[in-house]
Amino acid sequence: MKIITHVAITLACLLTLSSTSFAQTDAGTTLEQAQQAGKFTFIVFYKDNSPQTQKMFQVVQQSVAGQPQQATLATASMASAGGQAMAEKFQVSRAPMPMTVAVAPNGAVTGLFSRQVAKANLDAAIVPPVMMECMKHLQEKKLVFVCLTKSEQAAVPAGVRALQLDPMFKDRMALIGLNVEDTTEARLMQQLKVDASQVQGPYAALIAPPGVLVGHFSGTSTADQIAGAIHKAGKCCDDPNCKHAGNAQASQSTATRR
Fold first, then answer.
1. Which tens digit of pLDDT belongs to each residue from 234-251?
2. Contact (Cβ atoms closer than 8 angstroms) between residue 147 and residue 219
């Protein structure tokens, strides 16, 4: 009897998998509606209805079904003009398929998963608000100053304010406030390597694209000191021939030898 039951369950699972199919959605419309509703969108890009594609779709579908207030699902076929255009938009047209792209309500890409994905990956792609904003600005190639506070009002270090007047940096800076006591942003705090006890008065952590922690700056840090740290990290501009690029490589080599 147990053997018969086991076989029946196995056949039922196989039939469910083999019958799994999905129609292409208008990913652009779904994305727009999700963003207006403040939801994350998981876009499944695919070339065919292979078992690998079905498996990825099932995982994403089940994950989204468990958190309908936070996320929604869209599909995009690479065989369609719309799917190709969407893939180009997120720069995944040449990526191995299937591919799931997680897009935040503000347009930031918070996850890229090729060939396979686990629920834990999808859960991690739903990031809290401040982290989401940081990711958006970094993807726009901006220097992100996370101004840390223990209240609702974040103070900006004077050196950061002064740096906003520098023609080299003024159009590439983004300032974001973060309350260090906000437990929902614990993952970001860990990535910034910030000890809440350090935050006394104006204090900022600087992240540069694609997600490099440049340093921490207090109210006594000058604009020249902050600019020097940016130059040393090789993050002052996108020019590979920048005169500061060599200094950054030398610093990295020295750090490696240590």
1. 765 554 545 544 444 433
2. no
